[in-house]
């Protein structure tokens, strides 16, 4: 085992010397002013710069999922935290930290699903087989489809238009867009009604088309939602409030435990 | 006190109805494909869309501070976390959470300093007065200047070029750029040597020129650094490793406490 | 600067060799079965074992502040997190993370206040002087006194009985208990009505009597409240629920921003 | 769907009225001074008070796992965080947050394993069957056994003595102690050498004997380790240091990415 601290940490992302910073080989002073934020995200995650059109498509996915309001646990948590006497970074971190399998993981699962469907020769057959498997294994909510609040999630059809334009322009191949449409159709067939694509399902099409590994769909959603976390934490900070909990102060939760009782003897 | 949960949470950022999502009045389907990620950040934090040139300047600040390698505690934490069996969101959150007053707060303090200097009639006089006050009050490290690793932080001069171009183009007024130059000159005069501007001091010029409140300099740095947190957490995940601590496993820390001793009697 | 990773980290808390673990000099196998949890907390924070009576008093402070229900932001956050698909550790961490200056810092401030009062020759004169200073400097909520929900916080008088017994038994000196009583009396005199001690003010008496530095009052409160965080995260996990936000799903927050509007031209 | 915020949150842990706080029916003023910290932990998690002997056994598990030094990622993170200008609560939270499946989840998995073994008529047959299954399903590290640093983890044999005494005293039945011994023996048989029980395997015996659900083994470990997180964050705070990363400042990590390169044209 190597005892050298310098070798204990190893990275291909960044190299530094005094006065010099390079990301994946590019000097930071070359990047500044020539490369946008979405391109930088891509470079850091993929090791090379994207084309401008690819970067633009990534940017659409990033800008479209920034917020879903204070009913979302992540946003609510950032707002509460902002009333507790912590810095903006901690308010953001407490909210970011709950973008787990249920709250932030649908995109990751949807990318994996589209990839599985697209691996079949025919998307319709692929969707049929993969949904069969999903429900046979006890799956309940197909990742990326359906929304408890929106009958139609207004972000999804617009995002699919943007992806279709990118396919027409040759930016991406459209294989995962086809897979997603096939999944939506097959899901409607199985359920007897349309269960439309939601934001996670739509951004997953973009991430899949752009070649991101599935877990990065979650990571990129985290970047996107961080904007909403910051905005709400900041708005709440400006509003003031101290120790603001989820419910107004004179509302008491439902208590369902034992009635008042004395301590046992002894 | 109002007992209505709907009024307990109040926001001017987002409004929703089933099938409808609006950020500060704009429908999400109107924004998608027409507004970039940096513009969206601006809209969420400021309530209105920026001009394209302003958005471009914000984007430069965001893309330039994404990473400073595994010697930075935030990045190291994200990498360690990634070896502990948590999701990417938690690895990011644990790192983000330490961008506190010392690690992430210099930009916030630098914006406040530039604002204070720029409030004087003359930037040189302003810098003289504000640094006098800063050191008189016991300040040690002037926020935004000096770097323990880089003799010259390569990001700062390049960023100042970009700001100067934006002043020439009329995108921003340049008042805080002048303040920053005056601060750097006054600091050199006091110390007898140049203590050059660092990344926090440089991005603070941009945030101040663009009219962001000082605390958002910290918040925007958090957004920027989140990219590095994600990239390093992901790279470490791909490398593998289990419970990776800060030092190689056969290196032991310095123990400075009591020598081995028995428990006290009784 | 020392280049050796082993010296970069230095501690007097723990020493290890293969097969050997010592806390502050004591072998773990000597401690197990002979030293309780509160004694272990003390040893880790103070470097030596407490007397049994001191440990008992610390234990009272730890057990009395474990929970204040789902209206407290910390507890609400842990419950919400538990519905988002993260592990118990992350649900606890997101809640713990908001025990900041406002939510978790009152005890720290109260210890400092009692210490300041007790540094005067006479507690009454001390309370008068320190409250004069506190309100003159713009303080609004005297830390440790008053509660927005409880007219009398039922934990405080009972805790003061326990401290009084510890004074009678010679476990602690009672100087900070006297200071706290003097503060409460002086506050009532100034306000024209009793503003009774709350849980933070009461546990602060214990921490001050036991000689803990003020910041550890916050740290010990964090340990205590972690029990409630775990219990609520676990109960919520067992209840189920997915992405549970602060308000029922068909309740919408108050939107106070711009009316619906089209994007600007261009 | 119920629209009432008060019913949206439901708990059997705590009930409050102004001036009244009850945990699982017991008034807090009845509990204070009569119930220890470990009993309170039990009450909060189980809904009823334990016997004194059961509480004592839980306390042993809690006190024995508080710390494993700065090579553990959780402890290292708390120390780093303490140099970044955040409160003790955030330093603790960032560390706690990484006690995930790999770092904090072994106890949970070990409780499940012991339960599975103990469900067989005979522990030896149970251990044989369950390990057969574990390795057949691709398992590599049997949870609770083996340690990369300690040839014998000094905590485990001492904890097993304490459990054996509790079995002799009739506090617990010993079924899971037998299961653990059978697992250790079967593992040695399969591997051709002893792979001794570690701290997670040992505390898991206690949690299983006391009837805790497996996920609470992780939760209780989090409570225990929180003590170490606090102690190290506090020690580091007292030592000072700013932005302390994992390696000394003049050590550079291994960079393995592309050599310096110019930006692509265009």
Explained architecture:
- The structure is a homotetramer of 266-residue chains.
- The first copy, chain A, is mainly α.
- Chain A is 54% helix and 5% strand.
- The first copy, chain A, has twelve helices and five strands.
- The first copy, chain A, has helices spanning 5-8, 28-31, 37-46, 52-64, 73-81, 88-96, 106-118, 123-136, 155-168, 175-191, 199-209, 214-239; strands spanning 10-11, 14-17, 20-23, 26-27, 254-255.
- A three-stranded antiparallel beta sheet of chain A has the order 2-3-4.
- In chain A, a hairpin with a 2-residue loop joins strand 3 (20-23) and strand 4.
- The longest helix of chain A has 26 residues, at 214-239.
- The termini of chain A are far apart.
- Chains A and B meet through strand 1, strand 3, helix 2, helix 3 and helix 4 of A and strand 1, strand 3, helix 2, helix 3 and helix 4 of B.
Largest interface comes to:
A-B, 96 and 96 residues
CA distance, first residue to last residue of chain A: 57 Å
Q: State the helicity of chain A in percent bands.
A: 40-55%
H-E string of chain A: HEEEEHHHHHHHHHHHE
| Rg of chain A, Å, rounded | 23 Å
Which SSEs are present, and which pair or pack?
4 copies of one chain form a homotetramer.
Chain A: H1 5-8, E1 10-11, E2 14-17, E3 20-23, E4 26-27, H2 28-31, H3 37-46, H4 52-64, H5 73-81, H6 88-96, H7 106-118, H8 123-136, H9 155-168, H10 175-191, H11 199-209, H12 214-239, E5 254-255
Antiparallel strand pairs in A: 2-3, 3-4
Helix pairs in contact in A: 3-4, 4-9, 4-11, 4-12, 5-6, 5-12, 6-12, 7-8, 7-10, 7-11, 7-12, 8-10, 9-11, 10-11
């Amino acid at each position: 085992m190597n005892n050298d601290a310098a070798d204990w940490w190893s990275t291909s992302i960044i190299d530094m010397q005094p006065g010099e910073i390079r990301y994946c080989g590019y000097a930071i002073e070359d990047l500044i002013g020539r490369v946008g934020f979405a391109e930088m995200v891509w470079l850091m995650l993929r090791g090379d710069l994207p084309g401008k059109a690819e970067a633009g498509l990534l940017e659409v996915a990033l800008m479209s999922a920034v917020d879903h309001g204070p009913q979302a646990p992540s946003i609510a948590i950032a707002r509460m935290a902002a009333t507790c006497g912590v810095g903006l970074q901690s308010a953001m971190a407490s909210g970011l930290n709950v973008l787990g399998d249920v709250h932030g993981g649908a995109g990751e699962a949807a990318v994996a699903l589209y990839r599985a469907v697209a691996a079949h020769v025919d998307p319709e057959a692929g969707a049929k087989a993969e949904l069969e498997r999903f429900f046979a294994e006890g799956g309940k909510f197909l990742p990326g489809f359906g929304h408890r609040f929106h009958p139609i999630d207004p972000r999804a059809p617009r995002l699919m238009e943007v992806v279709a334009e990118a396919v027409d322009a040759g930016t991406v191949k459209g294989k995962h867009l086809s897979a997603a449409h096939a999944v939506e159709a097959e899901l409607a067939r199985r359920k007897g009604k349309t269960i439309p694509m939601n934001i996670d399902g739509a951004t997953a099409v973009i991430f899949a088309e752009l070649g991101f590994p599935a877990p990065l769909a979650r990571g990129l959603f985290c970047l996107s939602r961080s904007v909403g976390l910051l905005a709400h934490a900041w708005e709440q900070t400006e509003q003031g409030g101290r120790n603001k909990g989820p419910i107004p102060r004179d509302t008491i939760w439902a208590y369902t435990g034992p009635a008042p009782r004395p301590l046992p003897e002894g």
